[in-house]
Amino acid sequence: MTLKSVLECERRSLERMKKYQLPIQFRKIGFAILIISFISLFANRFSINNLELKTVAKYGMLVGLLLTSLSKEKIEDELVRNLRLQSYAFAFIVGVIITLTNPFFSYITDIFIKGEKVSWYGVGDWQILWLLLSIQVFYFEFLKSLHK
Amino acid sequence: MKNKLKIERAILDLTQDELAKKIGVSRQTINSIEKNRYIPSTVLALKLSTVFQKSVNDFFELNDED
C-alpha cells in the first residue's frame, strides 16, 4: 500500500464520519430523555435526595442533549449542515471561554455575596459537557429561526 | 453576491416550495438564497442552472465586496 492510497483511505473514512447522523426520530427521543431527566433532577433536589438518581438524571440530561444534537433535520440540506457547523464552532468557543472565566466569577461572587474568601474551584466535567451541548442545541435552533 | 433567483423563479412560475422540491432542499434554503443570507454551493448553483436552463452567471453575480 502506497502512502497515497493510505491517505486516500483515511480521507474517505473521515468523510463517512462527517456524514454520520441519527434519524430524525432520535430528536424526539433525546428531547423526552432530557425533560424526564430534568424533572427527576428537580424532584431529587427538593424531595427524594437520592445520590444514584441524581447521577443517573445528570447523565440522562447529557444523553438527551447528545441525541438531540446528533439527530437529522426533516430536510438535511446544505444550509442546515452549514448552520450545524456554525453552532458547533460557536458552542466550542463560548464553552471554552465560559469554562475559563467561570472560576474567576465564582470567586468574585463568593467574596461579595458570602462575604468570605473561598477556595478557587474549577468547573466539573459534567458542567463542561452540559454547557457545550446545550449551547450547541439552542444556538442551532436560534440560527434555524433566523432562516425561516 | 447578488442573485436573480426570484426573477428566474417567477419566469418559470414556480413557488419557493416547488423549486426547493425540484433541487432537493428546504424552502428555507431557497428563501435564504433569495434574500442573500446564504451563498449556495457549486452543486446547488448547478442544480439551479439545470432547472432554469441558464448558465450560473446569468442569475448569480459577484459584487464589489466579493
List keywords for this structure.
heterodimer, A: 148 residues, mainly alpha, 2 domains, 5 helices, B: 66 residues, 434 Repressor (Amino-terminal Domain), 58% helix
Spatial gap, N to C terminus of chain B: 7 Å
How many helices of chain B? The count is: 5
The percent range for helix content of chain A is over 70%
Order of SSEs of chain B = EHHHHHE
User: How many structural domains can be distinguished in the coordinates of chain A?
Assistant: 2
- Residue-averaged pLDDT of chain B: 91
Q: Class by helix and strand content of chain A?
A: mainly alpha
Question: What is the share of helical residues of chain B?
Answer: 55-70%
The CATH superfamily of chain B appears as: lambda repressor-like DNA-binding domains
CATH architecture of chain B: Orthogonal Bundle
Tell me the overall shape of chain B.
globular
Please, could you describe this protein's structure?
The complex is a heterodimer of chains A (148) and B (66). Chain A is mainly α and 148 residues long. Chain A folds into two domains: 21-72; 75-148, no CATH class. Chain A contains five helices and no strands. In chain A, helix 4 (78-114) crosses helix 5 (125-146). The termini of chain B are close together. Chain B has one domain (2-61): lambda repressor-like DNA-binding domains (434 Repressor (Amino-terminal Domain)), CATH 1.10.260. The longest helix of chain B is centred in the C-terminal third of the chain and has 11 residues, at 42-52. In chain B, helix 2 packs across helix 3. In chain B, strands 1-2 form a two-stranded antiparallel sheet. Chain B has 66 residues and is mainly alpha-helical. Chain B is built from five helices and two strands. Helix content of chain B is 58%, strand content 6%. Chain B has helices at residues 5-11, 16-23, 27-34, 42-52, 56-59; strands at 2-3, 60-61. The interface between A and B is medium-sized, with 11 and 13 residues.
